[in-house]
Structure formats: structure tokens, C-alpha cells
## 1
Amino acid sequence: MLTGCTLMTPREELPLRKVTAQELTALLHHREAAIQSVKGLFSAKVRGGLIPIASRVEGAVYYRRPNALRLRGFTPLGSELFDFVQADDLYKLRLPLEGKTYAGHRSDMKDVGRLARFSQLSVWALGSVLGTNSVARDEAVKVIEEKGRYRLDVYAPTAEGTGSSRPPIRRLWFDRRLLVVQEDWLGSSGEVEATIQYDDFRPLEEGSVRAQAVGDEDIRLFRPFKISLEDGRGQGSVQVIFHEMHHNQAIRVEDLGQLS
């Protein structure tokens, strides 16, 4: 007979502490504001024909707030596959191996075919790295506890100031550390456009700012070094592994490319 012992509930079974949608929204904004620039090197595996040019890509990303983004992709042997530059609604996509260049408004990327889809998915996948997946001030939010995680539903703004009567446009899952570990992008009818999993979180370099406190904890700023994306339309998947990631360092104008 055992006496004098107490059975402990496993940590994963402990109830979640209360966190409001406003606290999660503020945390996302704080993480976004902490990033002024990002540059990094990564490897990507692309499956399912999302891009016709390669299944393995070595890449580089450059980002500077508020909206300058450049993605470059190379073969494992170093030949340039693509060069994608974006700012606001403008883009430029250069395909050196095909000798083609596309430019214009992102809303008119239909002429680029599958590469338009790949470009959009790539931008979504980098949201947690760049801090661009925060909630806009006119979007409505609701938090739900689900399977030991917090799910933040994000709704498009409406004339009445709330979108809760319509399907959400995004869902973000936070773990107990309040890190975004999954994000779903949804279509107008609630269908899943893409599901993104974030893993291998690492803290920013020493000297970076720390996030504001939520509850009784001071949450450090982390970024995922592994990203897995599944296309909701069944067109394939992308897995990204970062080898290097540097924040808030000077980025040259030529690193960001040119739209003209």
C-alpha cells in the first residue's frame, strides 16, 4: 500500500491558463514590431508539382519593414531558378532558366500559372518568420481552447465592424508557450487554402528586444527554423529548413532587388 505520495497530473493535461484574444493579438503585434529586417538562407523540398522547375531548392530571403520582400531560389549546383520581388501589391518574378520575366500587380498574377500559387504560398509560409502574420486593426478575433492549445480565429472586417457571423479568413494555433505552431489560411467559404506547421523555434540573437509579458510570464521572442506547408487545393507541399537567420541587420538596396 502506497502512502504519503501525490499523483501529479502530466503537464500536457493541466488546464490552459486564461488568455484573451486581445492579449494574443497584442503579442503578435509586438513580435511584428520587433522585426525591422530579416535575411536568411534556407533549403526547401517541393512536392506535388507546385513549381515545374525543381523539387529541391536552395534559397535566400531578404525582408525589410514594412513591405519589401525578396526570395531567390537556386539549384543545389548554384544555378538561379527564380528571383521574386514584392512590395505592396506590386511584384516582379524573373525565371533565368526560362528567360522570362513577369511583373505587375499581384492580383493579376494569373499569367504566371502555378508559379503564382507557389509565390503566394511562400509569402504565407514566411509569415511567422517575418512577423507579418499579425492581426490587422480592423479584423475581428475570437480565441478558443482546443486540444491543449489556443486557437485564434481571425475574421475579415465588415461594415458593422465584426466578421464573426462569417467564416474566419485565418486560424492561428498557439501552444502553451504562446508560440504560433500552426496557421490555416481559409477561403471565402471556409475551405482550407493552406496549412502551415512551425517547428524548431529558436530565440533571436542576444540584444534583441523581449516580448511584453502575458500573464505572469515574460515571453522571449522566438522564430521557427522549420516550416511545413500543405496546399489545401491538393497541389503539393513545401518544407523549408533555415540554415541561417539574421534579424535587424542592415540590408543593402541591391539585396532587395528592383520592381522596375
Note: Residues 1-11 have pLDDT under 50 and may be disordered.
## 2
Amino acid sequence: MAKHLHKGDERRRRWKIIDASRAGDPSVLPQLLARLDGGETSENRRHIVRALGNIGGPQAEARLLELLASERGPILGEVAQAIGKLGLRRASSMLRGLRDHESEWVRQNVGFALKQLAIRA
């Protein structure tokens, strides 16, 4: 797997992010977090959020909770899914507040996340 997630064009960076996500490699977490804040495209940011959900750990969890509170667009669907996958129960009230989100994508993923959190209860 490529360890330098910042190199290459958008497509090449996306595939590096996807590979890191599939591998669940925590060694790339600092790079993922930096790319999330570093002007990455919206599509790549969504892949980074998925990777955070696959990698997990305190830093990934904290960043996902920040994103849940600060983001407004379709990326919330990926954030909700990652939170459900990781079982972050402290996000339950924020997720419940998104059940009526304007985006069907977000609503579906919020539903998934809330079900996952209920299963883990």
C-alpha cells in the first residue's frame, strides 16, 4: 500500500485512500487526518471518512464526532455510517437530530448508524 497519500493527482490519491481504508492500517491515520483538513476534494474527503470508520481508534473517533457536529452536506452520510460501524454511542443524540435531514443518503446512513448503536447496546 502506498504510504504517501498526498502524492499524485486526485484519482491517484483517491485510490491510495481507498487502499488504506481497506487495509485498516492505523499507520496512515495522521496522513488521513491531514488530508481531511488539507483542501482535499469532497469525494476524497468522503473516502477519508470511510477510512476513519475502518481504522478506528481515539483520533479517528474524535474527528468523526467533530465532523458530525460541523459538516452539513452529503458527507454526513459517511460520517454516520462510520460512527455506526465503530459503535460510538455518545453520538446517538446528534444522530437522532439528523433523522429528518434533507438528503435521503444522510437519512439512510443515520438509520443504519442508529440501528448499529442499538445492536451494540
Note: The mean pLDDT is 92.
## 3
Amino acid sequence: MKSSCQVNQHHFHVLLRFILVCAGLPVAIAQSPSTLENRFRNPPVTAKPYVWWHWMGSNFSKVGITKDLEAMKEAGIGGATIFNLSSAVQETHVPTQNNPWPHQTYRSPAYWEALKHAAAEASRLGLEIGLHNTVGYSTTGGPWVTQERAMQKLVWSKTNVEGGQQLSVVLAEPPKPIFTGWGSTRTPATYYRDMVVLALPEKANAGIRDVVDLTGNMTANGQLTWSAPAGKWTVYRIGHSPTMANPHPVPDELIGHSLEVDKMNADQTNFHWDQVLEPLKNHLGPYLGKSFRHMLIDSYEADHQDWTVGLQDEFRRRKGYDPLPWLLCFTPSLTGTADKGERQILENKEQTTRFLWDYRDVISQLFYEKGWAIAKKKLNETGLTLQFEPYSGPFDMLEGAALADLPMGEFWTHRTWEATNPIPAVAHATGKQLVGAEAFTGRPETSQWTEDPAFLKQSADGAFVGGINRLILHHWVHQPFDDRYQPGMGMGWWGTHFSRHQTWAEPGKAFFAYLGRCQALLQSGQQVADYLCVGKLEGFADVLSIPDFLRDSIRVEKGNIVLASGRTYPFIAFPKTGQMLPEVARKIKRLVMAGATVVSARPTTSPSLVNYPACDDTLRVLGEQLWGANKPAHTDQKGAILPTVAEAIRRFGIQPDFVVESANDASKVHAAHRREQGSDLYFVANQADVPQRVTLSFRIAGKQPELWQAEDGSIRNAPVWQQKNGRTSVQLYLKGLQSVFVVFRKPVSNVDHPIRVAVADTAVHWIVNATATGIPMLQSQESLQANVTYSSGKTRRITLGGQPAQELKGEWRVAFTPKLGTPFQRSFTRLVDFSQHPDTAVRYFAGTAAYQKTMLVKSTDLSRNQRLFLALGELNDLAEVSVNGKKLGVLWYPPYELDITDALTVGQNQLEIKVTNNWANRLIGDEQYPADFDWGPDRDDKGRAIKAYPDWFIQQKPRPSAGRKTFSVWYYHRKDSPLQPAGLVGPVRLVAVQQTGL
């Protein structure tokens, strides 16, 4: 239930407006808008949110493609990424039967024609489209990948033998893998290749020299001949087989016929991307690099890969020793079992741990060099960019984020963006202007056609604060069918449900406009950071991976760290583990000698087995040179080594960029800071769902703070602020979940202005800064006294007063326009929640209900020093307000209040409030009637699918169950599911408030 008052339900809000035309408080800014203002008020396509556009199996149509893209353009969407998925998805592919267009298989002539049509329509509309590189949403592979080309893993069998005799035994071929991860078809591998045969004596503290290589003693059929020394031996036949990991959820005809490609082998990577790109060049040539501009690698769900052809040579080249004898570290110990993690120890635990670190490091390097880097190069050469969610795999996430043209994270509707996510910090360090996020991915328990913009705002703002500046909405599923079938196609049970069939698609444009304005500013300039971290993000910083630190041509200028991207930092910080590669320590030494300041614990050991134990001796020498208490007298060290980030911050006198000086709940107020050609832009978000009166201190001086509101594109000077000790404090009032940009770009004038406003009654919540509409807010009708302190030192006592509210009672004429069905009208003597109404047409309504009323306004109501506000109270879910035919805006999150003064005239005025609710009640209403299709799997609280498209649907005949109006591939609700609050509940009040200046 949404209410206009979230702090005190027994008081209603009285609204005040401060006229900011008193001395020194102009409400307008320069007459000629700057480029930044133009970008803010009219965001370019690249600044608008994008969507993931899921094509569900063979269910696509050119008519639907055009309608979808036109709807995206109209809604304020900038582009789309096409996914080719199964006809229905639960955890993964669970196809719907009897699909209408079975001939439209993946890469059929119809498919290429549809894809080309999408590129042509995107070009016509000025939109950007792209494609997920493989079928499904994970990861890189397809039907062109054979088992030999697929991801490989080590497999082994072991045979216990008694030595001291001539042996002739058959070594069993290792069991082949069966993939059990996401999308698994449980198909066992058939491909296998031998690598090595190793024997290990059964004794404690076995060493690497105890391992006997018997590879030459075994025939192709596994026959081993060996004159074995005395004692008990375990013989391991080690080879590799495909992991059988498969892309998912793939188009129906490809289930069981697609594999993930080997990601550590350049030949296989090139093969995969050639299979992806060459057909695109043939079919979409004129559009590549134009309307068709990117390809995506979604989050990694392909499980682990630990072998590839050529890995032995790659390992030797990178680490300087042979990994094959050490592979026994992957086998179970003689007394343990693999499922308990009891692995074979060679030499000792430390050396075994170091080998395993080296092995994982080589795998990560190969994923990067032989996989992702090749993909990016081939895409860029084709005129395309790489979008990449670089996490969850056996590779360095930081390194992957640095590589991508558009690094991406993700967040779901049941949880917010994680503030510690390092992907934005990597992007900033490497000079990336855009940082994307798969946004609003919804679980079936939380996204049931019940989502609306108010539900989504908190997570959107949280992502913006975290450094994301392009939201890519999950999802906008392609709607290929006739428009009478709504809400239509979904991605199985997954949401959030953005589409042209969404009930609030029209008023929801206001939400998309908000996102676009936010992103227009957040994509400007560069994100501000105080220092650079390596390997792990700590604090208000950028971050590089260890490989990128070694790779980057870092220079030192006047003591500052300067990256190849041009980003500059006063110091650089490393993880405080005491473990470090010698090559990292050597580069630190070079930087310090050049004058850099480095934060790092003194290194004691290397994580690697390379040059062991000499590697640790090297670190001890470097440690003594840089960290030791008795450095050589002849040292030419210009920089410094410091133990902690806190000490470095103190040494450089770095003040906090943003401080919450006072707030109801300071932990819920967050900010992101970007700098654009001398302008500083702070995105400030109240993440609490209740209003907050806050005072914020910014690390800025000498500039006028302005308030840029992305909800309506308004720009005005902050009314209450002061400068002190090189900082600027701004007093704000933020509604529940409200955000505002605090922008510093103009020199400060010498005009006297308010620096503090204090209200005696601290329980009263009110606005003094006009963050959204210039409206102060009171919770009671009584007049209150406020003390205003000015920069000159003078004080003034003012009265904040509101007039008693006039509730708009009596009859409301309501015109119902259901998203499906015939419009109808009703008259309400009082406002009521639709879900409580006895009329089933109202109770199960989903769409837009236009409330109309005539209201009388007297000449005294429109006096020069008074404003009239409309307070709608409780409503569900969005409202567009019009007065005398003039549209005044869309209210899409509480409190639902609006200044309507300028649209009013003396006498009778026509008020219209168009309220749009979500799909849920209509879907529940349909469950009161028999189903005219067969149900598929029932997933309890997650809902249930249709088993097959019914014949009446395929043949476009009237549906047998005439009471049912909706049609979808997934149903979250049952007959007895609780109805959602809907409609305008109110009370609706007209509030007269007195204007006063500060």
C-alpha cells in the first residue's frame, strides 16, 4: 500500500512554497543553456536506459519487432540486446509445446530475415541494437562446438599395484564428465584423450622426485608394462574430456546440441567467434557498426575449466617448470576422498598450495589472453563493442572489467546494488566513460506483474550511487503475437516485466525520463576518486587488477601516480597480506624511486612456486630496501612507503569528499561525484523510504551550489548553504527515496544568502531547498516559527504557515480503460480501493482509470501570495494529473503531491487524475474461470506455466473460456491469491499554502 505520508500517518501533509526571489536567491540561471544543461534536459540516445530484448525460441515476428522497437523509442529507451532463448524458461530451458512458428528455428532463413529487419528498424528509429554472442544467456558456445572444441577438464583413474615385480596391467580409462550445472541435459562426454601416466609410491611426505612418469609404458588401449620398484604404488592414468557445460537456456531445437567452447585455447576461441561473426557479416553487413553495434557476454555460468590442449607448454613458458607431475595435487589423498577436499600433498602443504596458486593463475591468464582478449579484438575489428559481465568464472574479474568496452555488473529487485562491487572502480581507472548494469532482474517470488516504478527506484538510485551510469533493463521480452494476447510473452518465470504490453507503459515514460536525465549527468566527465588500489578495492578509490598493474605503463609526475588512461592519484595502495609476487615488488620499487607514495605491508612471501625458495629471498631484500628500518645511506628513494591508507590520507591532507553532517538516518544518504570540465556533479540519494532533513558537506569551495532535479528537469540555486574551511554545506529536504544532483559550476556571488534554517518543532518535516518542486512540506496545519541565519550574520524569524486543507468529497466520475477489454464508466460517491469493490469489473481491473471532478476555485484562493497544491493521498500505482485539459505531470512514487496553481482559473475547474495499476488483479480475476489450455509444471509459490500453446490460439479462434481476458506463458497467481491495492484511495485534498521568502 502506498501512502502520501510515510512518517506520520495521522497527520496529512500541508505544503508550502518558498519564493526564492528574495535578495540573492534567483530561481533561474543563465539564459543560454550550457551543453551540460542541454544534455540533462534532452538526454542523447546513449544516455537513455537500454534493455535486454529476449526472443523466446521460434516465437518472433517482423510485425512484433517493429512494434517493440517503436515502443522502446517512444518510451525513452536507447537500445536493446537480443537474446535467443528457449520458448520458456524456469531455472533454465523448459520449452513450451506447440509453438506457432516451428519453422523459425535459430539461424533459419526466417531468423536472419527477422534479425536484419530489427537492424533496419533500429536504424530508422535511431536506436542501437546488439546480440548476445551465443544462444542462451551464458556464456560462449553454440551448436557449432564439438566435444573436442569444448571446455576441457582433467579426469583420471587410479590403479593400486604391488611393486618389486614386472607388471602388466590394464589401466581403466577415466570416467567421463557429466555436467550438472545450469541448463544441464545430463549428457555424458564421449570424447577423451590421454595425457600422462604417473605413479606415486604410497608413503608419507611424497615429493615431486618420487613421481614416476610411465606415459611411454602404456599402449593406446591402456595396457601398462612396468618393472615396478618394491613397495606399494598408485598409478594414475590422467587425461582430459569435455566438461559438457552447455549454453542455456537455448532455443528448443538446440537443447542437448550446444556446448560451451574452450575458453583457454586461441584456436577454439577464434573458431567460436568466426562462427558468430561471419554469418552476421553476410546477413547484416550494412548495419554492423551502425545500428547493430555491440555483442554481449553475460555473467559466467559455464562452471570450471582446468585443461586445454597446449596448457603444459603455456604453463612452462609462464612459470618455468613442468606442471604435469604436480597434477597429482588434484587427485584425492591416499587416505582421503575428493568430495571432502582431501587432496594429494606433494613435497609439503606450502609448496602444494603455491603450485595450485600458479595453476589457477595460468588458467586466469589463459581465459584473458586466449579467450576474452581475442573476442574483444575480433569484435572491435568488425566495428562492434564488447559488453561483458566479468564475474563468477575462474578468471580475474578486475582484469575482465578493464578489458570490456562496456564493463557490466547486475542487480536484482530483491536486493540492491552492492556498494563494494569493484567493477565501476576498475572502469574508472582504465578510462571507461560508461559502466553498465543488468538492472532489475526479478525472481518469481518478487516480480509477478506487480512491479512499478516506485518499487524500482531505490535499487536504481543505489546503482547510480555505486558508479553505474547505464541501466540495461532486464527485461523487455519480444512480443510477437497479436496485441489481443496480453500481457503476452515473458521470459518464463523471470521478470521485471518491461514491455509495450505493460499496463503502465505510457505513464511509465516519466520513470524512463528520470533514468535518462540521471544517466546524462552520470555519464559526463569522470568519476572522482581519492587514490588507486591494486588487487582489491578499499574505500573511495579506483582499482586495478595485479596483471593490469604490471601491464600498465604507469608514470610518476610530481609525486602523483599517472595511469595510461590519464587518471591521476596521490598514492597507490596494495592488499595488506604480506604476500606479493617479486615482479610486483620490483615495480613498486621503481615507482617509489620515481617519487610515488605506496601503501603496502612489507612483503614476506610470494604466493607462487616460481623460483622457490629464491623468490622469497628476493622479496626479503626488496623489503629491506623499501620497508626496512635501516635503508642504505646511498638510497636515491624519492617517494615513500606507508603502512595504511588512513596514514596516506592524513599525509596528503585528503578531506572526505562528501559528509553527512546531520540527518535523520545518515546511513541512508549516499552520493556519487563526477567532474566535468570544471563542474562538479554530486548525485545525492536518500535510500530511506521516509523523508529526511539533511545537511551535506561537500569538498568544494568558491562555487554556487545548484539543485538539478532529474524528475522534471528543473534547475535552481540551492537556497540554504554556506562555505566554511574550504567546504560547502548545503541544507536539503529529501522525500522518501528522493534523489537530487547538487551541481557546482558557477562562481559564488557576494550576495547575502541563508546559511541555516532551524525550526523549533523538530518533529516537523519540511523542505527548505526546493529539491524537486520548490515545495516546503509540513505535517501539521499549525503555523510554525523558523529562524533563518544569513551569511552576513544577521538572523530573521519567519512564519511557515499553511491553510486548512479542503478535501475533495462527493461524486467522482471514473472512466475505466482496461488494458484488455471494453471501456466502461462508474460513479463513486467515495474513493475506494478497487480490490475491495463489489463489482468484479472494478475489483479485477487492470489499466487506467480516469477520475474526473469539477472543483470551485475562488479569487481569494488565487491570491498573489498563495499557491494551491493537490495532495492525492494513497494511490496505486501511477497518476497523471490534468487541470482544465493541461497535463501537469506524472506522479510515480510517493508522496503523490503537485502544485496545480498555474493551471487553475477562478470559477469551475475540471480536474482529471488518470491512475494506472498493474496487471495482477486482472490475472487473478482470470483464475476465477476455467483454464482453456493445459498447465505445465507447477512451481508452488513461483507459479506455473502453460504446457503448450492451445489450438484455438494457433488457429486464432475465439477462446473457449470467454471470461478469461489475459494470456501469458507464465502465471504467478491462483484463484485465491490476494488482490493488490488498486486505484485512487485518497483522501484527495486541495491545500492552500502561503508563499514566503527567506
Note: Residues 1-33, 761-781 have pLDDT under 50 and may be disordered.
## 4
Amino acid sequence: MEEDKKEEIKIVKVTEELIKAKTYEVRGYKVMLDFDLAKIYGYSTKAFNQQVKNNSERFASDFAFKLTKEEVNNLRSKNLTSSWGGSRYLPNAFTEQGIYMLMTILKGDLAVKQSIDLVRTFKKMKDYILENRELIGKRELLQLSMETANNRIEISKINSDMISIEKQISDVVEGLKDVVTKSELADMMNSFISDDDEKWLMFNAKFSSADEVYESIYRQAKSSIYVVDNYIGLRTLVHLKNSPTGVNIILFSDNVGNNKLHNIEYTDFRKEYPTVKLSMKKTGGIFHDRFIVLDYGTADERVFLCGASSKDAGARITSIVEDYGTAKYNSVIAGLLKNSPLVLPK
């Protein structure tokens, strides 16, 4: 009987078209609804929601919420939900972060497969937007970039707890130890980590999420962060947005190459994150390598050598290593601090 039940399960192919068709906007969020997600994962809606209820502590209000009658009627009036039929129940809606959290509670080979396909499809959709950035406004692009980074970091945090990627992000692991167990996403994330399209680099001789490595380094700063990198972009700013409050950040760059940072993006970033103390100076065209210097001129000074620009981190095989001989950089940084401000193009 069990084998017959398995054969009856219709596997829903996860595609960009499916995600677009099953994504609605409610309360300012892009969401998917419980009955659509249940079909994707091979559950009945009742069994799906029971799993969510059993793990309710994992679903914050910005991860999942129940629709009101007015919201249901509004969606029905737009002919978006014909699959509801005559059901009177109020469905649960899941944001993208909520969908990632579902991956920690839904079990079985099909759930693992569908989770992998969902992650990859979300990534393809976002990459398409970023690759076609000229088709949308810069302000919209900035917001999309922020959301993309946040979502990738959510996955990186879960992944870190399972496979102990790096000591330097142990604070993230500690924060999640009561939420996600090490075994729950192991199969899915092991497949995910081997995907050649993902953004991974070598840090301290281990493959790690590129975005999480940069953020983990920046979070260790106590007084200052100096980034020397001639190629900067939106992703450079995104990595810095969660830096410790009060830390003085200076980007040293000549802002060269394609898709360079523009003033409108920088201005919007400053408005979005007013507590980030960020300024920019020129490098003077004499730097090829990239550096991150934390807490310059103090006993806590640290220097990291970066094999690629942060905006392209993980696109090719590269690495970040710490150089413990910080004294030799003092004259270099002292010279950079005298340089004139960097003026971004409009």
C-alpha cells in the first residue's frame, strides 16, 4: 500500500514559469501559498500545514502569516487563485525566507529534490534581473540586490550550522543551533554546495559562501574598515550594510570596469542604512591587488588579501587569506588616507 501511495504522488516540476504563476503580492511581500507549496513538496495541504504548526517557532511573522478574509477575497477577485475552489479556510502565505525555512522541516527524498530545485530557480530568476540591470531603474536594482544578498545569507547561515564552514562565523552557528539541526539540510546543502553556479571561494583553506565570508570579516571590525579595491559595485555596499555600528568605513577605489558604482546607488544606500559610516577615496591607479584592513593603527589591526573584487567574489576560483605581517601595510594605508575623495558617476 505504501508503494502505491508513492506512485500516486505527482511530482511538480519547479520552473521559473511555475514560481511566477504561484507568487502573489500580499502586505508588501512576494509570497507563495500553502496549497501550492504542498503540491510542490508532495504533501496534502493539511499534512503540510501540520508540519508548519509543529515547528511554529521557526516561522517569524516575516517568514509566514495567515491571510485574512479580505486578502483572500482580493486575490480571488483578481482570478489568481482558481485552484482554491470553494474552500473557506484561510491559507498560510510564505515569503522566500519562509520557504527556505520549510526546507528544514519537510522530510524525504522528494522534499530534498524540490528544495534544491527551488533554491536554484530563485537564484536563476535573480541572476537574470542582475544581468539585465539596464532594463530596470537603479533604485529598484538596489532593493533587489539587498534582498538577494539577504536571502543568500539566510541559506549560508543554515549551511554554516550543518557543516561548520568557518570558525569566524561561529556567532551565526550559535544563534541557529536551536533552530536548525545539523542533519536536517545536509543532503540538500551538500548538493547545493557542489553546484558550479554558486558563489563560493576559499577562505582559510575551506570552501565558503563568498557573501558570508565578506560579511563575517567586516563584522569583526572594532573601529574601522578600509577596503582597497578598484572594482566596486552594489554588491560591495551590500556586504558592508551589517557592519558594527560606529565603525568608520572607507572604500579606496578608482571605480573602474563595467557596471561600476553610480552616485544614485550610493545615495540610496546611505538613505537605506544611515547608521553605516561610509566614505570613499581614490586609490590613484597604482593598485592591482585587493585588501581589507580592519582597525588600522590599533593593536587589533588585521589585513586580508583578496584574490578578486568583492563585487565579483566567487565568480571564479579565488581565495581570501589573512596576512599576519600587518606592519608592512602601514605606509601604504597612510598614503591612501591622504588621497582625494572619489566622485561617483551619475
Note: DSSP finds 14 helices and twelve strands in the chain.
